[in-house]
Design goal:
The chain has two domains: 54 residues, Arc Repressor Mutant, subunit A; 144 residues, Tetracycline Repressor, domain 2. It has nine helices and no strands. Helix 5 runs antiparallel to helix 9. The protein is globular.
Length: 213
C-alpha cells in the first residue's frame, strides 16, 4: 500500500469517526442544540480537526442524510429493476413499504433532512456534497416515476405526468412524517405514523387508478 493510499484511508476513517460521533450527539441533543464543539468532544478531536473535514454543522448533518438517500435508491432500484414480475399495483404496494422502511432506517436524520431541504441550508453546502444530494434525489424521484409510467402505459393509471405522481407521493410521505412528529412532541405516547401513511398512500393509489367506463 502506497503512502497516498494510506493517507486517503486514514482520512476516510477519521471522517467516519466524526460522522458516528455526530449521529450520537444529534440523537441526544437534536440538530438545533448541537454545536461543532459538542461533536468534536464526542469524537475526541479538536474543533479545528472537524473543520478540516466539514466546513459547518449543516454540511456534517447533510453528509449523514446521504446515507438515507443511498438506502432509498437501493430499495427503489430493487422494486423497479428486480421485481419484474410485479404489476404496477403491486409495485405501488412495494413502494409504500419502501417509504416506511426508509423512515425506520433513521427517523431522526430523515426528519431533519426534510427540514433542511425546505430551508436555505442547502446553499451552505460544498458544491460536491450539494451535487451528490441533488443526484440521489433526482434518481429516487426518477425511479418512482418509472413505476407510475409503467402503470400509465398499461392503461391502469390515469394519464398524467409520471414525475408529478412521484413528486406528490414524496410530498405525502414528507408531510405525514413531519406532521406526525410534531404531534408526538405534544403526546409522545401516541404514534400513528404507519397507520396514517397507509391511509394516505391508499387514497393516493385509488386516485390515480383509471376508472373503466
Amino acid at each position: 500500500m502506497g503512502i497516498q493510499e494510506r493517507k486517503e484511508r486514514e482520512r476516510e476513517r477519521r471522517r467516519q469517526q466524526i460522522m458516528v460521533a455526530a449521529k450520537r450527539v444529534f440523537s441526544d441533543r437534536g440538530f438545533n442544540k448541537t454545536t461543532m464543539e459538542d461533536i468534536a468532544r464526542e469524537a475526541e478531536l479538536s474543533p479545528g480537526t472537524l473543520y478540516l473535514y466539514f466546513k459547518n454543522k449543516d454540511e456534517l448533518f447533510s453528509s449523514l442524510s446521504i446515507r438515507i438517500l443511498q438506502y432509498l435508491n437501493l430499495r427503489l432500484e430493487h422494486v423497479v429493476n428486480d421485481e419484474k414480475d410485479m404489476g404496477p399495483d403491486e409495485k405501488i404496494e412495494a413502494l409504500k413499504e419502501v417509504m416506511y422502511d426508509v423512515y425506520e432506517f433513521d427517523p431522526l436524520i430523515l426528519i431533519n433532512m426534510f427540514h433542511l431541504q425546505s430551508s436555505d441550508t442547502l446553499k451552505n453546502l460544498s458544491p460536491q456534497l450539494l451535487s451528490n444530494i441533488k443526484e440521489l434525489s433526482r434518481n429516487s424521484l426518477g425511479l418512482m416515476a418509472r413505476i407510475f409510467e409503467e402503470g400509465t402505459e398499461n392503461d391502469q393509471f390515469i394519464d398524467r405526468h409520471p414525475m408529478a405522481f412521484a413528486d406528490i407521493m414524496w410530498a405525502i410521505f414528507s408531510g405525514v412524517v413531519l406532521w406526525e412528529e410534531s404531534k408526538r412532541i405534544i403526546n409522545e405516547d401516541k404514534n400513528y405514523l404507519k397507520e396514517t401513511l397507509e391511509i394516505a398512500f391508499d387514497i393516493f393509489a385509488r386516485g390515480i387508478k383509471k376508472v373503466e367506463t
